[in-house]
Each structure stands twice: as structure tokens, then as C-alpha cells.
Amino acid sequence: MKKNILLFAATCLTIALAVAEVSAQVQNNPVDMFHNYSKLLSPEKVYLHTDKDVYFATDTIWFSGYVENASYASEFDESNYIYVELISNQLIRDEGSISNFAKIEQKVIARKKLRRIGDAFQGHIVVPEMNSTERAILRGYTYWMLNRPVEYMFYKELEITNPMKDNAVAAMQEKEVKRKADYLRIGELSPFEKEKMEKKEAKRGRYDVQFLPESGNAIAGTNATIYIKSINSNGTGVPVYGDVMDAGGNVLTQYSTDSLGFGKIMIPNIPLQELSATINDTTGYSSLVKLPSPVETGVSINGIVGVSSLKEYSEKDFIRFSIVSSESLLGNGLMAVMHNGSEVYYTKPLQRGVERLSIQPKTLSAGIHSISVIDLKGNVYAERPFLVLPDNDEAMKVETDKEEYGRRDLVNVSIKLPEGMADSTGTFSVSVTDAGTASNAEQTTMESYMLLKSELQGYIEDIAFYFNRSIPLSQRMQRGDLLLQTQGWRYYDLSKIVQGKSEIPHFGKEYKQTLFGKVVNMTGLTNRAIVSFLAPSIGFKAMGQIDSGYFVLHDVNFPEGTRFIISAVGKNGRSIRQTPELMQEYYAPVYKYPVKPEGVIYSDAYKRAVENIYYNNEDGEHAMAYELDPVVITSQLITPKNSPSPIANYPIKREWYRDTLAMKSYSQSYSVAAYVTATYSGVREVFGDTGENISVPEYAKVRSADTTADAGGVPSGSLIGPKSSAGSMAGGQVTRPGRYGLVLVYLNGSFIHPEEAVNTVLSLPLSQVESMIYVSGVSAAPFQPSFDSGDVNPYPVLMVRTKPHVRADKIPYNVSCDYPLGWQKPVKFYTPKYNTAEARRNAAKDSRITLYWNPSIKVDANGQAWISFYTTDSASDYRIEVEGKSANRQYHYVEKIVSRKR
Q1: CB proximity list for 608: less than 8 A, separation 6 or greater
Q2: What is the pTM assigned to this prediction?
Q3: Which of 4, 179, 263, 453 has the fewest CB within 10 Å, making it most exposed?
Q4: Cα–Cα distances in Å, from 659 out to 40, 128, 514, 677, 738?
Q5: Are 798 and 783 in contact (CB under 8 A)?
């Protein structure tokens, strides 16, 4: 198969059309500008349904993806690819700090690209074995969403547990292990460092209380409504109370917030002066904060949510707005506009200082709406969001064929959509989990995310409340209004939209895969070259000429793990002084998303289930880093798949070995030499003549007069370590060292002479190393290149294996190889069948936490589907979750508990 290579980098056709259309409408009125934006440039939303919310190290996160245009008026189809990332806290050696040994940074520890197959996206991520017990983030976005702030990308809080590592840390503390590097090696803070970090957190301010004028302005001399949000240092709502005072200390009004930190006050005839408020709690705490200053001239919008219905909106329900405008602004052509994310559905010119208008929520679509005051030039004077919650009470039904089930019993489940909601576009995902082992930690559903969370920044406490149909609609609407006035809704920059100043998108909608790159020579970009592509695993070939130095390869279809071999020659077809390079793919920057402040806690039953799965897993997907008895963890012999040993399949002790996970905390700034001296006891670097008696084998002594060495022939910058004994440690230093010897170095299985090792191996950035082994004493004997006569003590040995892309010494200059991120191939979730007596009698314990997962289920013409699964050996009940969407953006979530015979 051959493809044409474009002669220069092209802008995505989708973006070009959108920008051209919007630019042509610059002279139109603001409402037309909004509609153009809605049709051509509106954002996308992604949602991920996971099989559960709690995972353990080496567990698999199964997910199904959904993409939707934020605007139902959009003229473009949704993207065909979703990027999914697992983000967690990683402990890193803090080289830039004198007081801190280590620091915690958020990192993307796994990334997958999902391709639309049919109407569904599906994928999975394995939780790394060395991950600590913590709260992590699962993030999803499309390429089009890179044009917007990362705060608005889909994110879901996951609880990650690692009982095995927790056991190991507890054993270290019980044995009074105090060396910080020992804890850092497994990605944990030492107790001392943890205590210091907790004290630092405790010094932060107790409360953050914000006073927010409704619609952004409080106009002096009017009755001003102020919304209040109070949170503690953990970011959760907290009740406080106090007085609001003028500049002279006179009390204007009093306030208090509820348990979620929400409050609301009205200040009559608010003065044009600096206001302040006291912050008090029931413990006696007190502080003082300043309020936003009132403005002399402006516009404010006051809203009243008049919903009294319990379940469905009625004709009597209303949302009423009072718009106050300064007389001096009325000549600017002010008008009130109401919009959702798709259209401006109401406009009214403002001709008086006070205007009132009312609307019935039953006539509006569910989601976040906004009323704004703008002028004919698109200037925005005030903006007030309001929430319309869905009131439909029809729900998907999930039924089982029996009331309760026994051990390894077959469960048949029927799924039925409400009448009139079934259509060919409906897609649903189904999970079944052990309800007694894994709790529902995350309350967000597709409905609550798409209609609310996707457009708000910050942590939303008790988000399930707003969509709980058992709570009166009137209560949910009142609290929803408090949420929107205090959460900082800024999903759309209305001023830029209506003025035609929206930023030109840098990233287009991704319907097919594209590769970008350049060809360089010794002087910079190549003017002309012939570029060839080869991807043997997918049978792909392409060739073409470029004239600008850049190339773009369109319409490629490749899964993850596809190796592309790219070559370039001069325009005459002979010169090989050209080097092709694939440009680095761009991903969303890491962002600290808000999560629950409390730590992750798991039950003894959960711990037993996880340990049973971990220690009895025979799939070979993880390295068994943790022993049942963590005290003897260092005595285990292992044979790593990526061992740097020159002796194939040679078993080694675990404490000798480091892989990328173990080195991750140091990989940002350490070299091989710096890492070895920091983490292996008794090893240090030597520079020049130290005056010490360092043993060096004859075959390893300095051979070149150009190499700096000590009197014994040790190259400057080499590593030395205990040769006959490990010595003893005190304060991190060897106090009674054994006889020191030169550390012999192997790179990718080959012995490297010390003169070369200093510059080629020891100075290598740790980020380029896949694994290493350091061994000393008698255990190093098998790795000696040879023995000097009369010397019976082996020299310490360092073995290093570099990552595959680093080992390119034999590849011609005009050829490069790369593995761009391809789409993840779907994998079917495995579930055992106990359909025979022999299978039911099998002695192997079934402790699965996820019993069933199907990322894509279609209903028939009657809106019905069926699934079946077998129960496990657990005596707990089981949770069935079905989630998805059907016609006209109808979101569905239903949970059913299946009873287990006791």
C-alpha cells in the first residue's frame, strides 16, 4: 500500500473551514457570532465508564469511552480517537532542595489511544506494580480538546491500593529502617519526611472563604446579593459564620454557611467603600477577610429559582431575573441574552435601569445555561449561570432471573430501556463487581458529568445529590443554584465568542492518524529530500519528495507497538547526509485535579482478596515484587525479562536489580554514576589520585596517556566499591570499608573498558536506562571477565541495559526508527464458566473483584439486551452497573445489587 506524502505541513481542513467561516461573519451581530462558534468551533466532551472505582497494584482498569459534541448544533462529527491517561503521584529525589530529601510530583504513568470501532471506544490500563496506595486520576480527551484548558478534560478519581507494599513499609518501620534512600527506592517517603510534609501542610491557612457578588458585580447604592463559599485546607466545604462590615467597622449584615460551605446574603443599599467580613467557627477561630469592592457603574443580574415541584417541572415553576443597569450604560445598546452551549434562545433589548424577565425550566434542555448582558460590540457586562436539572423519571430497568444466587452460580440479566428511547445509536457498557470488596468511591455518572461536572472547575462535593430523583426537585434546584454561583463557571469565554476573537484552533479533530516529521542535515532543515516509510508489522510502505524540510503522512492506520522505519536521501537519490525525525507527539500537560482530601482506606476483607489474587496470579504480567513476608523481601531470587546480565537467564537477588520503576524517582536529573552511588551501599566515584589503595585488574588499567587516572591506573570518574567485604555504614558513609576495587562495567551484555565506561556508561542519563544490576563480593564471581593471578576476591560489577531506542549505534545516519502512539487493540475481558460439575468443584479459589465487563452492548429494536455471568467464591453481594446513552442525548445509569445466598 502506498500513500502520498504532502510536500509541507498542512493545517487541518476542519480548522481552516471553521476559521474562514467565522472570519467571514465578523461584521455580523453578536448572536450570529455565537451561532457560528456553536456550529464550527464548539468543544467536545469525553466520558469514561470504568468497571469499578477501586483498583490494586497489577489490577486492570477496564473502560469504555464516549465522545459528544458540546453543541447539538455542531456541523462536524465527533473525533474518532480518545487519549486515556492514568495520572498518579510519584516520589522523586529533590535535588534542588537543601531541606527536602524527596518531593511528590504528578506524572502520567500510563497512556493509551482508543480508536472508535463501530460506535464504541474500549481499552484497558494495568496499574503499575510499584504504585502506592493513593488517589489517582484517570483522564480522557480528544485531540480537539487540546485547544481548551486541561481543567475541562474528563477526569475521574480512582482509589489505588497496594496492600503488598503497605505490608513492606510497615515491616521496614517495625525494623526501624531509617535510611531515606531505602524508602525512596520503593517510592515511599520515610516516616521522618512524611511527618515533616504533614506539618508543612498543617501550617496552611485554616479556611478559604470567598464572597462572590452575583453575576460578578455589586453596584453601589443597590440591593446586592453576595454568594459565599467556605472551604478548609483540604478543599472541602465547612460551616463558618461572621459579620460583614463597612470601612468604619459598622455591621451591615451577618452570614453563615451550611455544612457544604454554601451561603448567601443580601446587603441593602451597598455602600461604595471597602467592605470586610469576620470568619468564625465553633472552636473559637477568628480571622478577617476583604470583600470585592462595589462598582459605581455597571450591570448586575439577580436570579430567583422558583421551583416548587417534587419530581417534574410544572407550569408554576419559574426562574426569574432582575437586571439592574447604570443609566450611563443604556446608550450602549445593552441586551440580555440567554444561551446554553448550542444556541442563543432568548434576547431582549434593555431600555430601563431595571428590567425583569422570567422563563419556565420545563421549556429548557437539561444542563448549564447562562443569562448575560452584552452590547452591540460584544462587550459583556454581567453573566449569571443557572442550572436546569433533568426531571424525567423514566429509568433503564435491570432484572435478574432469580432473587439470590449461590457459589459459582449462573446469573442471567435483562436490560430494558424505557419506551421510546431505543434506537440504533444507543451504546451501553456493563460491569459486575463484588459489592462487599470494592465500594463505589466516585459518584459521577455520565449524566452528572455531561450536564454539570464537565463545565465546572474544582471539586464538587456530593455530586450525586443533584441527580438523585428520590430527593425533591425543588431542593436539588436550590442547591444547584448555590453551586453554580460559587464554583466559578467559565466554560465559554462569551466576550471572545461574540466579538469573533476566539483563538484559532491549533489541533484539529482527529478522524484518521497522521504522522509529522522533519528532515535535517548538518546545517539545519533539508531543502529537498526523498523520504521513505516502512512499517513491516502492518505491511505499510510510502515514499515521496519534500521541498520544505517537513513531511506529513496522512491516513495511516496503525495499532500500538508499530515500528516505523524512516529513511531519507538527497534529491539526487544518493546523498545519505539527511536525518529524518518524527516530531514528538503533543499531549495534554499534567494538571493537579481536585480529589477527596482523605486518604485511601481498605478493609481486611479487601486486603485478603487482593493478596490472594496477587500471590496466586500465574499470568506472568507482573514481577512479584513483594514477598508474603516482607521482612525477607531481599532474599528472593528472580530472573527478570529485561536483565542486563551477560549470562542469559541467570537468577539474581532482588536487591541487586533495578528496573525503570525502581529508578523512576531519580530519572529526571541523575546519571548512572550518581544513581549507583546514591542507592547502592559502599559505592562512590573517584577523581584523580585519592591516595587510597584501590585494586584494579591488569586488563582494566588505563591504557591511554590522554586519560586522567590515579597512581593505580583508575580512570578519573570511575566507580569503586567494596571488593572483599561490604564494610559497615554509619550516617550514610562507609566507616570500616573492606578492600576497595574498581567497579567493572557491562553495557547491554558486553564488558566496557573503564576508560570508555566513564564517558559512555557512567555519564549516561538515567532516563535512558531500562535496567541495571550491581553485585559485589563472592556473588560477583560469575561476572568477572577474567581473574588476575593470585587475586581470589572478585571485583564489584555494574551491569546496565539501555532502553531499545537508545541502542542505535549501528543504524545509518539517514535512517531512524520510532514507535509513535498507536491505537490499543481491543482485548476481551476473561470470565470463567462454571457450567460443569468439575468446574464448580475446582479447588482454585475465585476471588475476582470484577466478575464481568462488557464495554459495548447494543439493545434490540425493543430496547432490550441480555447478559450472563457466574458468581465467585465470595459470599458478598454483587453490584451490576449499566451506563450509556440513547436517542436525543438521553443518559442512563442504573445500579442493581444481586443477593448472594449466605
Answers
A1: none
A2: 0.81
A3: 4
A4: 48, 12, 33, 16, 28
A5: no
Inter-residue contact 656 to 775 (CB < 8 Å): yes
Per the structure block, which three cell numbers stand in for 879? 453490584
Residues across the chain: 902
Beta 299-306 vs 797-802: how paired, if at all? unpaired
Residue type for position 30: P
Give the pLDDT confidence score for residue 26 in this predicted structure: 45
Work out the mean pLDDT of the chain and round it to a whole number: 86
Residue 898 CA: distances (Å) to CA of 399, 402, 877: 9, 9, 6
How many C-beta atoms lie closer than 10 Å to residue 553's C-beta?
22
- Domains in the chain with CATH codes: 11-202 (2.60.40.1930), 218-290 (2.60.40.1930), 514-557+567-589+814-818 (no CATH), 637-806 (no CATH)
Q: How far is it, in rounded angstroms, from Cα 609 to Cα 623?
A: 19
Nine cell digits for residue 863: 430496547
DSSP for 601-613, please give it: ---HHHHHHHHHH
User: Could you tell me the CA-to-CA distances from 340 to 299, 366, 397, 528 in Å, in that order?
Assistant: 21, 9, 30, 50
**Amino acid in position 722:** P
Measured CA to CA, the distance from residue 388 to residue 794 in angstroms comes to 76
Quick one: three-class SS letters along 418-483? CCCCCCCCCEEEEEEEECCCCCCCCCCCHHHHHHCHHHCCCCCCCHHHHHCCCCCHHHHHHHHHHH
* Distance in angstroms (rounded) separating the CA atoms of residues 630 and 536: 45
**Residue whose cell numbers read 480512582:** 158
**Nearest C-alpha neighbor of 495 from the set 357, 355, 370, 366:** 370
Task: Report residue 576: phi and psi, to 5°.
Answer: -115, 20
Task: Sort 83 into a burial class: Cβ within 10 Å, 0-12 / 13-18 / 19+.
Answer: buried
CA distance linking residue 373 with residue 335, whole number of Å? 6
Q: Reduce the DSSP state of residue 857 to 3 states and report it.
A: strand
Cell reading at 821: 502512539
CA-to-CA distance for 7 and 715, rounded, in angstroms? 51
Q: For residues 73 and 79, what is the distance between their CA atoms, to the nearest angstrom? A: 16
- Please state, as a whole number, how many other Cβ atoms lie within 10 Å of the Cβ of residue 601: 9
The C-alpha atoms of residue 207 and residue 276 are separated, in whole angstroms, by: 16
C-alpha cell at 347: 434576547
Is 196:180 a contact under the CB 8 Å cutoff? no
Residues 385, 388, 389, 390: what is their CA dihedral angle, to the nearest 10 degrees?
-150
* Residue segments in the chain with a per-residue pLDDT below the cut of 70: 1-28, 94-100, 201-205, 424-425, 574-576, 617-636, 688-692, 702-713, 724-738, 787-792, 805-811
DSSP H or E run through 109: strand 102-115
The CA distance from 149 to 152, in Å, is 6
Distance separating alpha carbons of residues 679 and 682, to the nearest angstrom: 9
Retrieve residue 90's grid coordinates. 510519584
Q: Which DSSP category does 496 fall into?
A: H
| Cβ burial, residue 533 (10 Å; 0-12/13-18/19+) | buried
Residue 41, phi-psi category: left (phi > 0), alpha (psi -120 to 50), beta (remainder): alpha
Burial of 447 (0-12, 13-18, 19+ CB in 10 A): buried
- Estimate to the nearest angstrom the gap between the alpha carbon of 806 and the chain centroid: 27
> What pLDDT is attached to residue 805?
61
Q: Closest by alpha carbon to 537, among 829, 817, 810?
A: 817
Supply the pLDDT for residue 730.
Answer: 36
